[in-house]
Amino acid sequence: MSRSSVRLKDIADKTGFSVNTVSLALRDSPRIPNETRQLIRKTADALNYLPNHIAKSLVSRETKTIGLILTDITNPTLTRTAQAIELALAERGYGTLFATSNNDPEQEIKALEMFRSRQVDGMLIYPRSHRRLDHIRKIRQSNYPIVLLVGDPDAGIDAVCVDERRGAYKATRHLIDTGHKRIGIIDSANPLGNVEKSDGYRQALTEAGIAFDPKLTADPLGHSVIKGYWAMDTLMNAPNPPTAIFTANDSLAIGALRWCQKNGVQVPKDIAIIGFDNIEFAEHAATPISSVNYAVDVVTELAVERLMKLVVAKDGLPEPRVTQIEPDLVIRESTTGRS
To answer: Which Pfam families would you find in this protein's record (predicted)?
Structure first.
């Protein structure tokens, strides 16, 4: 008998119990004696029985699944986030369906449609653009539980996230406090309208009385190590190169560090480098890299907790709430020890 064709009646026929008794036993009902439950479960296993979750969801109107949409699964921070979310949801009895937009707006929309068609109970989303959210806002306004993993306080959508603006400000301020005035930034987010890190960088410069110089900015056109390498090449071959660099993620910082190693530039003596996310590779780079810590466990736990509250809201969703977590700096050799 195939796995998909086994019914409760088949187990009932095999064991001699009623369908109702079998159903209660497989749900571990205390109404059924333990010996009977064990016999029925053993028979169900022998027949390769699987519960019909589709039928259950039609009755309960719950699928016990959550959709998770990320921009790039190769991003180490998002990989850690996905793992933490899956574990947090599993502890609450939910399964996780994954999708990746690959920073493509059409793929993001398709993922949203796919999850809705599968009737997931809610969604956690790391959107491609932090500002262009009309397609997500429309779903939320239809009373559908959604929590973003980046936050715009005025988006009208629940969000739990690291305060990227504050993190970039702290990173730049650290470079200023260690004596730097020509501070470059490697950040590919601006074309998407994700201006938080750039804003934080500029704010720190302004407060220190340092004029913003567009020649010290580089768009790496991506987020990988090699993109950071070539962005660093552009900045360091300018007529008046920077003495310090802030990068929008640690992969870019590792690429910048690799450029320095290949070109005989000493870090931090000749140039300081600080990244964002505090991934494992940053700590174990040839020169350990300072970084802004992305508190994965805190973000995921609060995001899942908020989503669960939205999922069980029976009388309409509450007003959207945005929770921003202030990040700490992790200072390592790439920005200290300059002589």
So the answer is: LacI (PF00356), Peripla_BP_3 (PF13377)
Q: What share of the chain is helix, strand, coil (3-state, %, to 5)?
A: 45, 15, 40
Encoding tokens for residue 159?
A: 């969000």
262 against 190, higher pLDDT: 262
What is the DSSP secondary-structure string of 86-109? HHHHHHTT-EEEEEE-TT-HHHHH
Which pLDDT value is given to residue 1? Answer: 40
Angle between helices 34-46 and 8-15 (to 10 degrees): 120
Lowest model confidence (mean pLDDT) among 47-61, 177-191, 271-285, 299-313:
47-61
pLDDT band at 129 (very low <50, low <70, confident <90, very high): confident
Beta strands in the chain (DSSP E): 65-70, 95-100, 122-125, 146-148, 158-162, 183-186, 217-218, 244-247, 272-277, 290-293, 322-325, 329-330
Of 314 and 231, more confident:
231
Please, what is the average pLDDT of the chain? 89
Contact residues for 260 (Cβ-Cβ < 8 A; gap 6+): 232, 266, 267, 270, 271, 273
Domain annotation for the chain: domains and CATH numbers = 3-49 (1.10.260.40), 61-162+296-325 (3.40.50.2300), 164-293 (3.40.50.2300)
